[in-house]
Amino acid sequence: MPADQKAAKYLTRKEAALELKRLAAEIARHDKLYHRGDAPIITDAEYDKLRQRNLEIEAHFPQLVRRDSPTTNVGAAPLAGFKKVQHEEPMLSLDNAFDDEDVAAFVRRVQRFLSLGPSEIPEFIAEPKIDGLSASLIYERGKFVRGATRGDGTIGEDVTQNLATIEDIPKGIQTSSPSFEVRGEVYMELAAFHEMNEHAQRVGEQPYVNPRNAAAGSLRQLNPQVTARRPLRFYAWGWRDVSDLMPATHYDGLMQLKDLGFPVSGLIARCQTVDHLLDAYNVLLKNRSQLNHEIDGVVYKVNNRVLQKRLGVVSRRPRWAIAHKFPAEQRQTTLEGIDIQVGRTGALTPVGRLAPVFVGGVTVTNVTLHNADYIRGVGADGAAIRGGKDLRVGDTVVVQRAGDVIPQIVDVILEKRPKSARKYHFPETCPRCGSAVARELEPGEEGVIARCTGGLNCPAQAVERLIHFVSRRAMDIEGLGAKQIEEFYELGWVKEPADIFRLADHRDELMTREGYGEKSVTNLLASIDARRAPDFSRFLFALGIRDIGETTAGVIARHFSSWDAFEQAVRAAVKARPGEAYEALTRAPGVGDGARANLLAAAHELKAPKGDLFEEAEPPKIKGVSAKAWDGLIAAFGSLGEAIAAIKAAAKHAPGEDYLELGRINGVGPVAADHLVDFFAEKHNTDALKRLLKEVTPRDEAKVATSSKVAGLTIVFTGTLEQMTRDEAKARAIALGAKVSGSVSKNTNLVVAGPGAGSKLAEAEKLGVEVIDENEWIKRSS
Ligand code: IVH
Question: pTM to 2 decimals?
Answer without folding.
Answer: 0.52
